[in-house]
Specification:
eight-stranded mixed sheet; 17 helices; 20 strands; manganese
């Protein structure tokens, strides 16, 4: 048997790119890492393997805890982690969802070509930066009272449609059509609502960004055609989440769980995995609040996309309809969902936690939008500022291997603190512009340093492993042209 040793943790090779940490001690299931040996060498450098092992101690863990090829250390639960916990006898864990609830990505396609954009990069990046709020703190496309925030929390993108910030097709091309059922604004604290009311339609900071890209490669012509993608086309990628509202909601429920479910907490090897038992009032309340924060994040990205359409109209002198600026897809990265999955020979309802992981349902799955059901759900995987991003489709092996999931990005190699000590933001910006003709504008040089290309794993290798495993199949590759961030 082939093994891989990582500082006291031994992984056994199950098959190509599938490594298992065997169940032992108080583990309730094995843990699996989906990676090449090159990626494993990077994954072992932080606490990812320890964290994915700790995850197997959660009650109700089903089959195995899973770490994706882009996995890296997170809060309790690794980023790039998937854990399916029994919705009747298991639990739900805010730490296994993450602080930025429904951090996710959406891609908007256009009929513009790279040639049409060249020469206008600086004008476009300046206009986007001026018109789309970014950075820490407040400021959004719309500022609202708490009543409006509550409506957004419960209605999602349907609210944006009613108020002229969306068209019907936007909803049809969004995961869950832009509205999570079971959202309850009353389960979101007043403090969280106050933090969110002036951040509706804003990128925030950190690794969140808006990037104008060109399609450089189409690997699957039939699926590419179904997605409306072709080489040399301009697309826009938006990456952000639920801002302060989601962060506050996660923090609120972690504190409540620590007080009310100390018995369960004491059974876990890491208090950051704090979880509420399935069926408890707190589990139900958190799920309702999380669904509400999910809706808030979808509206946040929708308003940014709406403002982006307006910017393109001014820069290019055409209506957004004439430029065919339609949503390809919007998918969440930090989420827990009640889903029905086949386990053994029975169907079971599970809380599927995806933290830094993307739902990747295959062709034919009823939850894939009708427009894409014949080819599979679009999966959008952003790379770093100096590398390509990818559009995949849900692979036919995803339901068996990963509860219908794949990676969500390149995955960090170094912490933000380390990145700022090794890179200077101005140098990174200059190098990207001079070498790759990528125009970056940010609120601070520190943010650019934190997100320098060298901070991340090789997204090509992450996607290759996903493709080889059949959990997310390559459709197209894109490359940055303009990038704005907080």
């Amino acid at each position: 048997m082939t093994t891989f040793d990582a500082d006291g943790i031994t992984l056994e090779k199950v098959r190509e790119y599938v490594w298992e940490i065997p169940q032992e001690g108080d583990m309730r299931a094995p843990a699996r890492v989906l990676a090449s040996e090159a990626l494993l060498e990077e994954i072992k450098e932080d606490k990812t393997l320890e964290q994915i092992t700790n995850t197997t101690h959660l009650p109700g863990i089903t089959n195995y805890a899973i770490c994706m090829p882009d996995g890296h250390q997170g809060y309790g639960f690794p980023v790039g982690g998937v854990g399916a916990l029994d919705a009747e006898n298991g639990c739900i864990s805010p730490g296994a969802v993450g602080y930025d609830i429904n951090c996710g990505v959406r891609m908007m396609r256009t009929n513009l070509t790279y040639d049409e954009l060249q020469g206008r990069e600086e004008e476009l990046v300046d206009s986007l930066f001026t018109n789309i709020p970014s950075g820490l703190g407040g400021g959004g496309v719309v500022e609202a009272g708490v009543d409006t925030v509550e409506e957004i929390l419960e209605r999602g993108v349907d609210w944006a449609l009613e108020h002229g910030h969306a068209v019907e097709e936007d909803l049809l091309h969004c995961e869950d059509e832009g509205m999570r059922e079971g959202a309850d604004a009353d389960k979101v604290s007043q403090k969280a609502k106050d933090r969110g009311k002036n951040q509706i339609g804003s990128l925030g900071s950190g690794n969140h960004f808006l990037e104008v890209q060109r399609v450089t490669d189409v690997f699957d012509g039939d699926v590419g055609e179904a997605y409306g993608l072709e080489e040399d086309q301009i697309v826009v990628l938006i990456h952000c989440g639920s801002r302060g509202l989601g962060h506050q909601t996660c923090n609120d429920y972690l504190r409540k769980i620590e007080k009310q479910h100390q018995g369960l907490l004491n059974q876990l090897p890491d208090k950051e995995l704090a979880a509420a038992p399935a069926g408890s009032q707190l589990a139900e309340d958190y799920y309702a609040a999380m669904n509400a924060a999910i809706n808030f994040a979808w509206v946040n990205r929708q308003l940014i996309m709406h403002r982006t359409r307006q910017v393109f109209e001014r820069v290019f002198g055409r209506s957004w309809e004439e430029m065919d600026m339609h949503l390809l897809y919007d998918v969440a990265h930090n989420i827990a969902k009640k889903e029905i999955h086949t386990v053994g020979d029975e169907e079971r309802e599970l809380y599927v936690h995806r933290k830094g992981a993307t739902r990747a349902f295959p062709a034919g799955h009823p939850e894939v939008p009708k427009a894409y059901r014949d080819v599979g759900q679009p999966v959008i995987i952003p790379g770093s500022m100096g590398a390509g991003s990818y559009v995949l489709r849900g692979g036919e092996n995803s339901m068996d291997l990963t509860f219908g999931s794949t990676a969500h990005g390149a995955g960090r190699l170094m912490s933000r603190t380390q990145a700022k000590s090794e890179y200077w933001g101005g140098d990174v910006q200059q190098e990207l512009e001079e070498q790759d003709q990528i125009y970056v504008k940010a609120q601070s040089g520190a943010t650019v340093a934190e997100e320098a290309p060298g901070v991340y794993k090789d997204v090509d290798e992450v996607v290759r492993v996903s493709d080889e495993l059949g959990i997310g199949d390559k459709v197209a590759r894109t490359f940055p042209v303009c990038n704005i961030k907080g």
